């Protein structure tokens, strides 16, 4: 009886811990989906910038070259971001749901660690897109309007960098204080002492409580004849 109660308790705790970890997995997946969607939109703009834009014949060759360089950087950076977010979400969720014991923790931690490189690629696409627009202003406009547009784009880039840094500092937290479920979801956890330590109650009390709940459930479950 005690062995069965212990196994049931362990399974219940690990099931609840897995559900909590699944919320974190869904959070990361939603974040990557949002970034990937925006990167796909910017990649579409970049294709139009490369293919559909008709370069004036009188445009300076240096400006033409700079424009196409930034346009291609916009395209490849955003396509790279789309590819990474797609692979991370597909493979990460697949590992979490179909992998061996402990795969949920591995998938969530792996997705968390990949955020920085994805955000850097997305940021590079935004910056290069703004610079492409600034070059277009000097190609299509006179000096004064082009200078005004360039100033507006420079202010936009400065504002993006400023508020990105502000938000990073504002939402920053200490990694050592993060709630971790690794000790519960670890493959080596099936001993009563570790469970009791996590719950902070006495071993005998816990087993008696679980036994009474199990007995009550059995008493209220009607027997059926086959």
UniProtKB/TrEMBL annotation:
Superkingdom, taxonomy of origin: Eukaryota
Statement: the UniProt record of this protein carries the keyword Transmembrane: yes
Places the protein is found: Membrane
Membrane topology: Multi-pass membrane protein
Keyword Ubl conjugation: no
Chain ranges passing through the membrane: 32-54, 66-97, 117-138, 144-163
Sorted UniProt keywords: Membrane, Transmembrane, Transmembrane helix
Principal subcellular localisation of the protein: membrane
Membership in a protein family: Belongs to the Orai family.
Name of the molecule in the record: SAM domain-containing protein
Species for this entry: Durusdinium trenchii
The organism's taxonomic lineage, starting at the top: Eukaryota, Sar, Alveolata, Dinophyceae, Suessiales
